[in-house]
Amino acid sequence: MALFDCTIDATCRHARALTYETAHGSFQTPMFMPVGTSASVKGITVRQLHDLKSQVVLSNTYHLSLRPGADVVAEAGGVHKFMNYDGPMLTDSGGFQVFSLADTLKLDPDGLSFSSIYDGAKIRWTPEENMRIQEQLGADIIMQLDQCTPYPAEHDFVAKAVDLSANWARRCLAAHKRPDQTLFGIVQGGMELDLRLESIRRLREIEEESLAAGGRRFGGFGIGGYSVGEEHEVMFETLGEVARALPEDRPRYLMGVGNPTTLVRAVREGVDMFDCVLPTRTARMGTAFSSHGRMNMRNAKYTRDFTPLDPNCTCPTCQNHTRAYVRHLVKQNEMLGGILLSIHNLHFLLDLMRRAREAVLAGTYEEFYAEWMASPAAKDY
Q1: pLDDT confidence of 279, banded at 50, 70, 90?
Q2: CA 126/CA 116 separation, integer angstroms
Q3: What distance lies between CA 28 and its chain's CA centroid?
Q4: Which one of 125, 138, 216, 257 counts the least CB within 10 Å of its CB?
Q5: What is the residue-averaged pLDDT of the chain?
Q6: Statement to judge: residues 322 and 202 lie in one domain
Q7: Could you count the other beta carbons within 10 Å of the beta carbon of residue 171?
Q8: What is the radius of gyration, based on Cα positions, of the chain?
Q9: Are residues 56 and 89 in the same domain?
Q10: What is the DSSP letter of 68?
Q11: Which of 256, 276, 296 is the last residue of a domain?
């Protein structure tokens, strides 16, 4: 396969199984990506990521550009060598983090200005500067700079954000030159289907203009602006139609979503890639995913429970430790408690997507979906 080739290995109704080639190897979908915000998945070593069969790790442009600085990461040989991870990596643009800091943000058509959360330094990003930073970081997949709208938001406000994001997508695609990277465009539009479809139309138009001028195309597409406070069912009112309006020959990436049932449902709608801090963040709070639903390991009922977290799980935590021991660690605020739960929760999502892919390849995803939705694990919202 050539660099950034995408092969559709199988489909089952709208669910898809893809293989995608990067400079650091290929990955297969459906797939969940652990989040290593600052070039580290909290509490998890690179060796453990490999043991868990993680494929792509996500890191964050906002945080890495501020500390240690994109120049430091570049001097180390890029983010792969900096954190010693030899598999595919993705950096988001950092736009979501910037827009979450609304009290320091100043936005204009040319770019945005904000203050560093670390030392208050004034920062200016244009789409071109954001591309320069992400080229320095050196991930295999990078994301355009975009405007993510809150929920709820007025239609006119969201429409302006779609227009701004499209204009920035054009500038990002023109500015991005690094040949061993690919750029994903991002669909915005809030919960408004018409604006989502307009965002896709604009991205297709931008891509066609770029190709006609001898430029590059988008390597895939992020679906941003969901999971920002709306009810789960609100997202699914539009997600399927949005996903299927995107080109079939490249990955569709639902950004910032990590709830197990949401992943199973989104795959059924045609989504290929996911990321979220949920599995490790909830782990640090003492929560475990399981085939019986979420488990609060602070609960006294686990005090003398000497069985694995999940008898159906093959992760190192479940193979070597009991509910009673994990509860003890969590109650004592021992660091190891969060680490063991992070290992388990990441394995749970990675394995869930592995089984989803197997079902697509076998042509049985509808059966897989029905079995999941009928299980206690589906009630994990």
Answers
A1: very high
A2: 16
A3: 15
A4: 216
A5: 97
A6: no
A7: 19
A8: 20
A9: yes
A10: I
A11: 276
Lookup result for tokens 């190192």 = 316
| Domain CATH code at residue 142 | 3.20.20.105
What secondary structure letter does DSSP report for 35? Answer: B
Residue 104 pLDDT grade (very low, low, confident, very high; cuts 50, 70, 90): confident
In this predicted structure, the answer to whether residue 381 has a pLDDT above a threshold of 90 is no
pLDDT at 309: 97
Q: Which helix (H) or strand (E) holds 227?
A: none
Strands (E), 139-210: 141-143, 182-187
Q: Is residue 9 in some structural domain?
A: no
d(CA 72, CA 299): 44
Clarify whether 275 is annotated catalytic: yes
Q: 249 and 148: one domain? A: yes
Choosing from 92, 140, 272, 310, the catalytic residue is 92
Task: Find the length of the chain.
Answer: 381
- Annotated active-site residue 146? The verdict is no
Of 7, 54, 58, residue with least CA distance to 31: 54
For residues 22 and 315, give the distance between their C-alpha atoms in angstroms, rounded to a whole number. 28
Ramachandran category for residue 168: left, alpha or beta (phi over 0 → left; psi -120 to 50 → alpha)? alpha
Residue 200 placed within a domain: yes
For residue 44, the enclosing domain spans 29-276
Which of 140, 146, 272, 275 does the annotation list as catalytic?
275
Give residue 55's pLDDT band: very low, low, confident or very high (50, 70, 90).
very high
As a whole number, mean pLDDT of residues 272-301 equals 97
pLDDT of residue 98: 85
Same domain? For 175 and 304 the reply is: no
